[in-house]
Design brief:
Layout: H1 6-11, H2 17-28, E1 34-35, H3 36-43, H4 47-59, E2 63-66, E3 71-74, H5 86-104, H6 108-135, H7 145-181
Antiparallel strand pairs: 1-3, 2-3
Helix pairs in contact: 3-4, 6-7
Amino acid sequence: MARLPAAFDAEFEHKGETFRGIAELLYTTPDRQYTQAELADRFGVSTAAISGHLREMEAAGWIERTGTQTTFGWDTDTRDPGHTEWAVAITRFYADCWRLFKTHSQTAPGVFAMWGLVYAVTAGVGFLVFVVFALGVGVEAAVTDGALMSLAVAFLVTGVVLTILAPVQAFLTRTLWRAVFIVE
């Protein structure tokens, strides 16, 4: 498991195994919310004991209660483990990217927007390659600087066009759907 922040250890050094176990679980899964019952089942203690531990951590500002529900998670606004734990940061980044991909690959406008982003990022890389070769930092390029710049501009224009097509595709789909399937 990841090490809890030193400030947490200093503040709660006298606490027992269950208290630290709850803190470590919440710290290593900052995007997940747990109910008191889930935590009680996991650690084999009563919900009253869990409630006391959570209340103490919440009062100290280490965890936060979500909405009006009794779910708790690590307070990532003030103590984000992604800032100190590189594995957590990388895992969360790729999980977010995968979630976005899965969500937006389900629709035609989302696909246009994703490909637009891919082309725009490719254009950015192309511009960097152009700058590196134009400044003579690396080895000499097999193509001219003008060809590198042209490729970068072409990728950028393609990315912008694809991104603009996303809302156009949404409008066309909505309009055609109404015209074909909704009979008034």
